[in-house]
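Structure tokens please, single chain.
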Amino acid sequence: MRYVIFSLLLALIFACSEESKKVEKNVPQELEQDKPLTSIDRNGKYTEWYDGHEQIKMEGRQDEEGRRQGVWKLYTQDGIDLSITVYKDGAKDGHIIVRYPTGILRYSGRYAMDERIGEWKFYDESGQLVKTENFDTVK
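Here you go.
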């Protein structure tokens, strides 16, 4: 059951990610080379751009105190998802997915207030599972 829920969550996150990347390619014209490479809107959405403002490097939401909240994404300069991490009050708290720059899954797992928990899976650069570790049993 946990695997099904996790799979559905991954599918939803990546579907939303693909849709948001379509919008992100349309950089507002008011962004100029001499403007800052980061922005925070009034709703707390943080966006960091690579040089040239053509591709988002990182995005997510911050609370009034500047702490990360919810889903944060990191991209390559080519727009490939490098990582998706869930935060709560500035701490990693939820699923994390990290990819190689090629887009192949590198590892996935879960955090509870910055502590690794549960089963984590690690993959090589060809996408083959190389290690599974259960952090609930690690002391």
